[in-house]
Every structure is written in C-alpha cells, then in structure tokens.
Write a structure and sequence with these properties.
Largest interface: A-B, 60 and 62 residues
Helix content of chain B: over 70%
Order of helices and strands of chain A: HHHHHHHHHHHHHHHH
Number of helices of chain A: 16
Radius of gyration of chain B: 18 Å
Distance between the termini of chain B: 31 Å
Oligomer: heterodimer
Number of helices of chain B: 8
Structural class of chain A: mainly alpha
Largest sheet of chain B: none
Strand content of chain B: under 5%
Structural class of chain B: mainly alpha
Strand content of chain A: under 5%
C-alpha cells in the first residue's frame, strides 16, 4: 500500500471511529413497505424556511384559489389604509431582510398576504395552463406558526408563547410545486412565469428587485451566524443543554452545513422524534424541551440578533435606493384581503 | 450521474408487498423482517461508518442506512440470493450518500452559503493531515470517491467494488488510478 493509500485508510478509519455501536438507532421497518421513512431532519426544515423568501421569489410559487375580495382595486387614500400600507411595507422588509426572530415572524405575515394575492391573480391563468391549484385556505396564524425558522431566526417569545419549537411545515404551506410530478415541473415553472408576468405584474416587479437583494442579505446572515462572536457562544449553549439533560453526544453535534449553534438541540429533538411511537409523544416532548431551548439559546440569540440588526441598518443604508423601491412596490400592491 | 448497481435484485416478484394478504404471506413477511433485523444487527455499524466517511454527518449517515434497510425490506422478495443483501445495502448506502450530497449542495446554493465546518468532536478526533485527506476525498467526483473508500477503507477487491457499483472491474481500476492521481494533486497543492 502506498503512503497515499494508507493515508486514505487512516483518514477514513478515523472518521468512521466517530460512530460507535451506541450511535446506531434501532431499525424501523414499520411502514417501510409503503413509504420511505420520515426523515429525522424535519427539525431542520425551518432552516430552509429562512431561505423561503428567496426561494419563493426565485419561482417556487405556492398558490391556491381561495376567493379574495377587492380584486384589482387600488389603495384608497384613507389614513387607516395608509397605516395598513405602512404595516405591509414593514412586514415585506422583515420578510426579505429578517434580522431577528420577531422580524422573521412578522415577515411571514407578508408571505401569507403575498400568497393570497398570487392565489387571486394567477390561479385562473395556471388553471388554464392545466395546473388547477388546490385551495389555499391556511389561516394566517397557522401559516406563521408552521413556518417558523428556529434554526436561523428563532423567535423565542413565540416559542415560549406557543410551547412548540419547530412544527412540521411541509403540509401547511400549500407548496403546490412540490406535489407536481417531476416530468411536469418544467412546464409548471414556465406557466408560473408566464402567469406572473401577465396577471401579477406588481408582484413580479417586486420579486425582480427584492429577490437578488434578499439573497445577498441571507448570505450576510449566514456569515454572521458562522462568525467568531457567535460561535464563541456555542460552548455555553452546549453546556446549558447538557445541564438540562440533553445527552452530550447530541448536545455537541455540529450539524449540517456549518451551522453548529443550535444543531445539538435539533439533533436531540430529531432523536426524540425518531424514538416516539405515539403522535402525542412529539407534542409532549416539545412542551418539555421548548423552554430548555429558549433558556439555552437566549444569550446566543441576543448576540446574533444584535449583530444582525447592526448589519441590517448598514445594509439598508448601503442599498437605500432599492429598499425605497421595494417599499414603493409593496405599497403599490393591489388591495388584498387580510 | 449514474446510480450504483442493483447488486443482486432479480425481477421475480414485486417486493415485500407480495408477501402480504395471506397467512403464508404474513409468515414470509415476518421471516423477511427477522432476516433483515439480523442483517441490521450485523452490518448497521459498518454501513453507518461508511456513510459517515462519505458524508461527515452522523445524523445523515444514520438516515441513509435506515433508508437502505427499508429499501431492502421493500425489495426482499426480489432478492435472488440472500448473500447479495450486503452488496445491495452497500449500493443503496452509496446511492443514498450521493443523494444526500446533492441535496446538501442544492441547499448550499440556495442563499445559505456557509463554510463547511467540522464538528468540535470530529476536530478533536481527527488529525490535521487526516482531515485534509477527507476534505480532498469529498471534493472528488462521486464515483472516484466511492471507489477509493471501498478500496482503501473497506479493502474490497476490484471485482466486489465493480459488483456493488454496477460497473466493470477494469473501470474500477482505471477510476481508482485517476482518483489517486487527483487526490495526490489536491493534497500536494494544499501543502
């Protein structure tokens, strides 16, 4: 064996040795004959939700055909509607450029509204193209709760209030695109683009301005969350989790894709989810562990959010022209049902 | 990117679903379950380690192995020879790792760009040189990476690797040669 070959062997052996017999979970064959077992990584789904703004804007449109009143109307100029306009504009900016958990949650209200508008505007066009959308009738509160991003933008107040840490979001967002057979996804994407340009031009224009900027912002957030000031908080989070009873080998897990801060907690929740046999067990585990997460995450979240808020102010100054344009485009969106 | 070979599956029946519906079927299903559970006891650790070498992510490695065993359960009745179960599982694990890497790359390309960071545990357990070998290994194309791991971690023969990967032994040899050269270049540049 050459030295390179022995090096491969020893490197692989060393990596393999990180897995011990105790790490092997019991085999689950229940339901294996009908479906692939549920991934234990659904706890990380909200991580993707954090990028959902960019993803939605990149063309992953989820729409339904719930009736929306006030079709095509312009904003009347009353003072009450001005407040509504201002609120919507703020929610939109929070949605594209969240710096805190609370902002992320507020931004979800805009996403919900956007979805309603899309439902109204491009549903008929998509139906003509052969893509009859399922009804989108998700209540706003439910949509917001189920789209939480506890890995990246944990809203600790919301977590404490609701007692849940990361509800499964896959079946609540009405992500119709995911249900489309693979072979039809190309034509679906083309139909969405065509309908968006034809029937939802204000949203299309908003997307064109906001999506690239939102992607830049999310990169900045990623950089902050991987930066030394945030990562130095990790031992504190790990110690706190261990003190609360999370086994060390979960508490210390580094997670996927270099987002290690709360990875240990989510690894533990995934393990509990994996081990739970009754539906009520998951809810029970969440009630127990949500306050632990809030307590252990609080100092790190405070540091993270402080840095992100400072960065956001600088980002808004740096891109003031585009931010103004986004605000204007949101305010110009047709009247919607909230 | 092609997926690795079917490693021993025949087309003689339609999977474990074919067991169900009758008393005899139920008994066959139970026997299959017992056999697969025994296989799991014997090989889950090795396969999870293999997946972990490929993915550097213990959770994802466990998922890949669970899915491989579920796949085996679904296809048990199609398995021509129970001795082919292990190659089948290895092939499934390698396929699962490829999918996991693809999903990870897709996620990374969608707005969340972060440097790949090793866990504190893995940093402590793995030396600097070994870590750079693993990093270089993961930069290789999937087929080259799989050939090197099967050859130099599991010490499989070229014929066995060919069987697991569904390619010719001569292709395994040439892939191994190219992969070693590429790895050597990468490590040389890194030094």
């Amino acid at each position: 064996m050459s030295s390179l070959e022995s090096l491969i062997h020893s490197a692989a052996e060393a990596a393999a040795a990180e897995i011990g017999p105790a790490d092997i979970p019991p085999l689950r064959l229940t339901g294996a004959d009908t479906a692939t077992p549920r991934s234990r990584h659904w706890w990380l789904t909200p991580l993707a939700a954090a990028a959902s703004v960019a993803a939605v804007l990149a063309g992953l449109i989820f729409v339904g055909h719930a009736p929306v009143t006030g079709h095509g109307g312009a904003w009347p100029g009353s003072a009450a509607l001005s407040r509504a306009q201002a609120r919507l504009a703020k929610q939109a900016l929070d949605s594209y450029f969240p710096a805190t958990g609370a902002q992320y949650t507020a931004g979800l209200a805009f996403l919900w509204t956007r979805q309603k508008i899309l439902t109204r505007d491009i549903g008929p066009c998509l139906a003509t193209a052969g893509f009859q959308q399922p009804p989108f009738s998700v209540p706003k509160r439910k949509f917001i709760l189920h789209s939480a991003a506890s890995s990246q933008f944990p809203d600790l107040a919301q977590r404490l209030r609701t007692g849940v840490i990361a509800p499964r979001s896959g079946d609540i967002t009405g992500d119709y695109a995911r249900a489309i057979p693979k072979a039809q996804r190309g034509s679906y994407a083309s139909a969405v683009r065509r309908c968006l340009i034809r029937d939802a031009r204000p949203i299309w224009r908003l997307d064109k301005v906001a999506a690239p900027l939102a992607a830049i912002w999310l990169k900045k957030v990623g950089a902050i969350q991987s930066s030394p000031p945030v990562l130095t908080m990790r031992p504190g989070v790990v110690n706190c989790l261990e003190a609360a009873g999370v086994p060390a080998r979960y508490a210390k897990q580094g997670g996927v894709g270099g987002r290690p801060l709360f990875a240990g907690f989510f690894a533990w929740m995934s393990r509990l989810d994996h081990a739970s046999s009754a539906p009520g067990q998951i809810a029970h585990d969440q009630r127990i562990w949500t306050p632990v997460f809030v307590t252990c995450a609080r100092p790190a979240v405070a540091t993270m959010e402080r840095l992100q808020l400072t960065e956001r102010s600088a980002f808004f100054r740096q891109h003031a022209r585009q931010i103004r344009a986004i605000r204007r485009l949101v305010i110009d969106l047709p009247r919607h049902q909230t | 990117m092609s997926s690795v070979g079917s490693a021993g599956l025949s087309e003689r029946s339609a999977g474990v679903g074919a067991f169900t519906g009758t008393a005899a079927g139920t008994s066959l299903a139970m026997r299959a379950e017992n056999q697969i559970t025994a296989l799991y006891r014997a090989h889950a650790l090795g396969l999870t380690r293999l997946a972990h070498v490929m993915l550097s992510d213990a959770g994802a490695a466990e998922d890949v192995v669970q899915e491989a065993f579920c796949g085996l359960y679904r296809n048990w009745a199609r398995l021509a020879d129970p001795a082919a179960a292990l190659p089948y599982l290895r092939a499934s694990v390698l396929n699962g790792c490829r999918s996991a890497i693809r999903r990870r790359r897709l996620r990374a390309s969608k707005a969340i760009h972060e440097p790949a960071a090793a866990s504190a545990e893995s940093v402590a357990l793995t030396g600097e040189e070994q870590r750079s070998v693993l990093v270089a290994l993961r930069k290789l194309p999937a087929r080259q990476r799989e050939v090197l791991v099967l050859r130099f971690y599991l010490h499989e023969s070229y014929d066995e690797i060919a069987r697991v990967m569904g390619i010719r032994p001569s292709t395994v040899r040439s892939t191994s040669h190219r992969a070693l050269a590429a790895l050597g270049r990468m490590l040389g540049e890194g030094r």
